[in-house]
Predict the structure.
Amino acid sequence: MKKKILVTGGAGYIGSHTTVELQEAGYEVVIVDNLSNSNLGVVEGIERITGIRPAFEQIDCTDKKGLTEVFNKYPGINGIIHFAASKAVGESVHKPLLYYRNNIVSLLNLLDLMPEYQVKGIVFSSSCTVYGQPEKLPVDETAPIQPALSPYGNTKQIDEEIIRDALNAGLPYKSIILRYFNPIGAHPSAEIGELPNGVPQNLVPYLTQAAIGIRKELSIYGNDYNTPDGSCIRDYIHVVDLAKAHVIALDRILENKSESRLEYFNLGTGKGVSVLELVYAFERATGVKVPFKIVGRREGDIEQIWADSRYANEVLGWKSVETIEDTLKSAWRWQLKLRENGIM
Ligand code: UD1
């Protein structure tokens, strides 16, 4: 029988790509999503790729009663991948309570319900933001956690601590915490991708919108950092590579392959790419020019960070394989598809 997985936030950007990989690996997926930053068209996109329509429930994970009904309606959920969260750094500064409520209460509800429904484990979406500006690069999983620079970042740290304390207290499940670097790109079919609400805050959606003419030009935040070309450095990872890591992490929990009840993995490519390098890589990969200007630094930005991904490579047995050019091509195909479909 197929194992049943609850994917919270499964209609979102990383959640939808992960649902595709889970279904292709033979899992049955139940998506719970409040559609606050997505829509039902995403579920249709998943169905067009895999031929399987995942079960879908429009529920907010802060609603414990609603979640309980989902566990009753779909008995035998074996594992959870918890994506549902608010993730806009700037917004979190202005609406901290919204962020604390969404990102913390949702996790508490799931952790509370898991023992009652005998769920074996939870894979949690965390972020490299927990490392702040690391002293040593590339950054590995043993690097110290630094004070968060935003309420959003703080919710990720607090959620990691909640999971650790719950397991230390002997709650009967396992967890794998995945610290993402910068996910970009879209499914090669261009059926699903990143669909930001309003003006994109993240680099690649803004860049593709500038390239297609929706935005006048991309603003590059700072060229006076202490990096080779002066722009910030990040570790950009193809969202499909990232999605595949979730399937491996889940298998690891469900098949009892993990060495301890709680594990942490960095998910990055291991390569740092500057903002300017990324713009030029996009132009090389697609032949499309990106209008841009250099502006001042963005508050709260980290100068440079990229992953030491050896632990994920060796212990999880996962490695990112896509090149930055192919990844950017997939982001561009998705942008063209949105235009073709009259979405933007
Ligand atoms: C941010 C968060 C990260 C979060 C992620 C999810 C921090 C430090 N990082 O990542 O925790 O998980 O968002 O949304 O809080 N840039 C431009 N012009 C733009 C947009 C971005 O130059 O219009 C630059 C930024 O300065 C940065 C890089 O592009 O150097 C990547 O920015 P972005 O895509 O927003 O991701 P992060 O800030 O790295």
Summary: The CA atoms of residues 32 and 57 lie 5 Å apart.
